[in-house]
Amino acid sequence: MFCSVLSRLFTAALLLATLSHHHEDADFYPSSKLRVGPAQSLEWDPNGYLIFCPCMGRFGNQAEHYLGSLRVAKEINRTLILPPWRSYKNIPFTDWFKLEPVRAYHRVVTAHDFMEFLAPEHWPPEKRIGHCWNFPKNKCEMKAGNPFGPFWDELGIDFAEEQNYRLGNDMDNPQVVREWKERFPPDMHPVVALKGAPAKFPIAASNRNIQRHFIWSDAIEREIKEKFTAERPFVGIHLRNGQDWVNSCNHAGDIPQFFASPQCLSSAQRVTKDLCMPSIEEIVSHTREAVIRVRAKTVYIATDNNPYLDELRAGLQDFDDVVLLHLNPWLPQIDLAILGRADHFIGNCVSSFTAFVKRERDAQNRTSTFWSFNRPGDVSGK
Ligand SMILES: Nc1nc2c(ncn2[C@@H]2O[C@H](COP(=O)(O)OP(=O)(O)O)[C@@H](O)[C@H]2O)c(=O)[nH]1
Ligand SMILES: [Mg+2]
Fold it and tell me: Is residue 35 part of a domain?
């Protein structure tokens, strides 16, 4: 029995070896293919546009800002120019997500289409105003430093002028919405370009369900179909434990809120170190419980650092037909998309990477639990 687990692990390790090398971007990114015109003719929106730089943090943080900004655009009735995601370079929105489902929420146009088809006539260089929150108290400098400079540079945008704005981001408050409209009338400000997202991190609870409009692109679907061939049912687990996380969690004891923690904690509860950094005993026993509950054939392990393969193998050795799979994909979005479709998901309540998966699963009515917080039995029948 142990041998069979070993051989399966060996297969998983082989998979790991073949999948973790970095592809040439051109193999994957649809945007690197020949560009074609927009799917529909682009008409200028007299209600104006909004664009921001998703310049804070990595994907999980950016996604929360993105959802919040979509809500702002909808409330102030401007078309959202979908900014590229910011990694080591700009990644067009449509490389990772479909456009049409977002359109079902609100009017949007990709930044590339906007710059190619609308900006030359309607937003010429001399009219490009950048807006910073609470400037001039702080310096504005729309393009100072990384990622700000490269983000706008890659879109071909320089600013002729910089202006101050000081508005709230609570879109549940009609007064805040009114103030936005007063500050930015569309005839004076056809395009509002913001240095940062007009949204909270962590995401406002009322904006979480906007995630149902984020559907993985065909390119991501193809990658998954090719690479994730494990047997179902499967349990997906997210182990956030890189050095940056270990350092952060040292500050996480007995505080009311930390990063994405409101996704599981009420304001009356407190963050604990275990919530941020679960023990190996918790990881093993929680995973075991999920395996039993969904009768899993596979445990899919996603992590930024240590997959704890040895510990999980030892802890699950009595389940002789359960395969541990750790693909370590070159693109974190592959992990996100796979975790999204697990039969049960266990994540880290403090992590915004987990939060992305949790929101997607909630939209699909799939069960999720958090390390050191709850157990599969608590969320059954959902
Ligand atoms: N491939 C992969 N990358 C991860 C995983 N967890 C974290 N990362 C990487 O670490 C980053 C963490 O930053 P962020 O997304 O802001 O989430 P947070 O820091 O956990 O709130 C991610 O964007 C990924 O680049 C994982 O399970 N798989
Ligand atoms: Mg982060």
Answer: no
- One-letter identity of residue 96: W
| 354 CA to centre of ligand 1 in angstroms | 8
pLDDT of residue 139: 86
Task: Dig out the tokens for 30 from the structure.
Answer: 């649809």
Q: How confident is the model at residue 187 (pLDDT cuts 50, 70, 90)?
A: very high
Same domain, 229 and 364: yes
Residues with CB under 5 A from ligand 2 (ion): 57
Q: Is 19 in the pocket of ligand 1 (CB under 6 A)?
A: no
Q: Is the pLDDT of residue 352 over 90?
A: yes
For the stretch 169-186, pLDDT in tens is 999 999 999 999 999 999
Q: Is residue 283 part of a domain?
A: yes
What stretch of H or E contains 59? helix 59-75
30 within a domain of the structure (yes/no): no
Q: Among 149, 184, 213, where does a domain finish?
A: 213
Residues 53 and 148: beta-carbon distance below 8 Å: yes
Instruction: Note whether 203 and 230 are same-domain residues.
Output: no
The finding on whether 351 has its CB within 6 A of some atom of ligand 1 is yes
From ligand 1's centre to the CA of 60, what distance in Å?
A: 7
DSSP 259-271: TTGGGT--TTS-B
Domain interval for residue 257: 2-23+218-378
Average pLDDT value for residue range 11-29: 43
CATH at residue 192: 3.40.50.11340
Residue 367, token pair as written in the block: 């069960």
